[in-house]
Amino acid sequence: MNSKSNKVVSIGHARNPGMPLDLDEVLRYRINRSAVESRAASLAGRRSVKKQWQAAWLLKAVTCIDLTTLAGDDTDGRVRRLCAKARQPVRPEILQQLGVQRLEVKPGAVCVYHNFIKTAVKALAGTGIPVAAVSTGFPAGLSPLSTRLAEIKASVKAGAEEIDIVIERNLVLTENWTELYRQISKARVACGAAHLKVILGTGELGTLNNVARASMLAMMAGADFIKTSTGKESVNATLPVSLTMIRMIRNYYELTGFKIGYKPAGGIAEAKTAIQYLLLMKEELGNAWVQPELFRFGASSLLTDIERQLEHCASGRYAAYAHQPLV
Fold first, then answer.
1. Catalytic residue among 85, 197, 259, 263
2. Residue 105 is assigned to a structural domain of this protein
3. Which of 89, 107, 140, 313 has the most crowded CB, counting CB atoms within 10 A?
4. Domain count, the chain
5. For 261-275, how does the pLDDT look when each residue is reduced to its tens digit (9 = 90+)?
6. Domain that holds residue 260
7. What CATH number corresponds to the domain at position 241?
8. Cα separation of 123 and 119, whole Å?
9. What does pTM read for this prediction?
């Protein structure tokens, strides 16, 4: 573990070096599902933001989006169009009407398959927007480990600054924690300077106890972000799962002093839902975690609804969805 980089990177906080596997720490978590669900359900009723405050939260949400295209029929043209949208995620006239045209509003990253990394890097040149790649046999993560590690290295070499890996969910279901730790640790080493985002596939882990334990183990193994889903599962990001993972992030921070990012992904398509997630992060972890360095949405269609809501804030009218095409 000492060989892992712990340098302070441009995001402004120390990189997570991981720690030796502590199974007593991993297995001690027991989640009260009813309490978690009650806390999550109360969020929308207790928190409501309107007018200029709503616009401010929505602009913040834009900066936390990983604009994503992970379709089987992706093309270079589609990726270039997505990158063009990343360059100007909100129409200039809307920003002008809101009086925020001087703000640098851009998404957290653009996320693509390995084959389109070079296309995205070229299209985003000069913007400072990183390219994230899904590697390690996405979405199932069941290709040989040597193949997955080689894919990570190839993605980093191609220009990806963030790597989203998927775990073998069966290792959680069979409680093979040592092997899971080994695989994530090797992925962390293969990433080098690129940030490692570990996708847990929470909809396939069975229980919130498993979600909590897998979250803690991934952070011990060196994850810079933990992420809910691939977006391909039947159940993706939910507020109860998010609350469970967020509290594991808080526990890891109290244990080690290292800040780990969080990325809910899959099924987050409405602006009001995005605000709920941002408020949950603020309440549970504080303002430091309501920044793209530590919080991302894995989404694409979310931006369309946010832009419509921003136009309503600016003009009092909703635009047709066709006015905010992504690709």
1. 263
2. yes
3. 107
4. 1
5. 999 998 899 999 999
6. 23-323
7. 3.20.20.70
8. 6
9. 0.92
